[in-house]
Design a protein that fits this description.
heterodimer, A: 253 residues, mainly alpha, 11 helices, 77% helix, 2% strand, B: 308 residues, Rossmann fold, Alpha-Beta Plaits, four-stranded antiparallel beta sheet, 14 strands
Chain lengths: 253, 308
Amino acid sequence: MNWIGFGTLIKREVGRFFSVYRQTVLPGLISSGLYIVIFGFTLEQRISEIQGVPYTLFILPGLIMMNTLTNATANTSSSMLQMKLLQQLPDLLTAPLSGLEISLAYIIGGTVRGVVNGILVLILGVFLTDLPVVNLLGTIVFIFLVSWAFASMGLILGQIAESWDQLAMMQNFFLTPLSFLGGIFYSIKMLPEWAQSLSFINPIYYMINGIRYTILGVSDSSFIVSFWMALFLTAIFTTSAILLMQSGEKIKQ
Amino acid sequence: MSAPAIQITGLTKSFGDVHALRGVDMTIKQGEFFGLLGPNGAGKTTTINIVTGLVFRDEGSTEVFGKDTVKDFRFTRSKIGIAAQEFSVDWFFPIEKLLYFQAGYYGLTQEQAKPKIDDLFERLGLDKKRESRLRQLSGGMKRRFQIAKALVHDPDIIILDEPTAGVDVELRRELWQYLRDLHSQGKTILLTTHYIEEAELLCENVAIIHEGKILKEGSPKDLTRELGKAGITVQLGDVVNGMESYLNEFTFTRDENRLHFSVKDPDSAMPEIIRQLSKADVHIQSIESKVSSLEDVFLSLTGKGINE
C-alpha cells in the first residue's frame, strides 16, 4: 500500500472542495435555510404536524440527507470528470498508485464533503428551529454511511460520464427527483397507495427515513430496514466503484 | 549483466480497426539517451503510454529494469518520470502545491520533497511563479512545469514526449542543455520527437518508428552511414583522358567538369578521392561534401519526410 500517495490524494480531494467553499459548502447551507424559512414556516400554518412532529422539524432530516448525498455525489463525480477532461488523470494513472487506492481516496474526499455539509445543515437546523436530536451518534453514523455510499456512486458516474452534460443529466434526471420523491417534504402515508408502493423501490426513501428516525424518533420505514439499506448501498457502490477503477474503463485505453 | 532500463518485445496495440503498434521491439540500456523518432501517428505516444500504464497492451511485453510494467507496476512506475506532450490544467492549486502533490503520489513526504522542489523551481526558472495557477503561465512556463513534474521524485528513467513542441528557440536550447546535464548524472532518457535536429544532437541511439513498427535502430551516425545519401562533388580544372580508371572503386557520375561521388561516409572517402585524382594528374578547383542526415535516413526508410 502506498500510504503517502493515498494520503496525498485524500488531501488533494478535500483541499479541492475547501478551496472553493463558496461553491461547495455555502450553497447547501443557504438553500437549506431558505427551505426552512419558505417551506417550513409558511406551510407550517397549513400542515401543523406530521406524525406528531411540527412540519418545519419534519422536513429538516430530509434536508440534511439531501444536502449530504448531493454533495458527496457531486464531489467525486465532478472531480473525476474534471481530471479526465483537463488532462490531470494521467498524473495519477502513471503514479505508483493502485486502482483501490485511487478509488478509496476519491470516496473519502467525497465522504468528507458529504459529512461536512450534512452536519452544517444539522447545526443550522438546531440553531434556527431548536431541532431535537434523539440519537446524535446514530445521526452522525447515518450521515457518514450515506456520504460514503453516494461518494462511491458519484465516482462511478464521474468515471462513466464523458461530458458535463452527461453528468448533469444523471444528477438532474435521477438523483434530484429520487431525493424529492423520497419523502423530504412529506410522509409517504399522505400519498395514494400506488405512490407509496413506488416509494419502497426508491433507495433514498430509506436514507431520509433512517436519519429522520435518529433525529426525531419517527419514520415511515423501520430503522433497521433503513440502516441495512444504507449498509447495502455502501457495499454495492463501493465495490462497484473500486472494480470500475481497477478495470480502467473510460480512463485507460 | 544489469537489466535494460526499458525492454519492449513484440508489443502490439489496436484501437478498434486501427493497428497503432504492430510488434514493436526496442531496448534502451541504462544511462542511455534514446530517441524515438517518427511522424505524428507513428505510435510513439502509444508506446510510451503502455510503458507508463496509461494504455493497455494487446500483446507483447514491456519491462522496466527487468520487471513487468503491469505485474510490478509500483516498482516500474516509481522508476519513471514522464513529461507528457499535453498540458494539464488545474483551477484549484498553485503550481508549488501541485508539485508537492505529485511528489506525494510517488511516496515522498513534504519534508523529503522540499529540497528537490526548491532546486527544480530554481533550475527551471519557475521560482517567481510558485504561487501562480497553471492557467496563468505562458506556454514555455507550462513546458518547464511539465518537466519539473516528471523530475520531482528523482526518477532513474525520464520519458519526454515531444518536450520542445511549440517552444521558442531559446527555451529549446535551454531544455536541451538541462537534458544533457541530467544524462551526465546517469539518468536514462527516452525522448520522442519529430524534430530530427533534436534527436541528432542529443541521442546516443534512436529508433525510427513508422506505422506502428520500428524500421531501424542504432546511433544517428551509424544510421546515416548505413542508409544516408552522402556525396562529394569535385570541380575539375581540366579533364584528363583516362582519369576514370583511377576511380574504379567509387560510384560517381560526370557532368562536364564536375564529378559527383555517392559515398556512405564523406570524411573517410574524401582523402582517397583526392589521392586518386592527384595520381591521374588532374587539377582540382574545388571540392565539397554533403553529409547525410537522419532526415535522409528517414526519407529512405519511409519514402517521406518526418513532418509530412
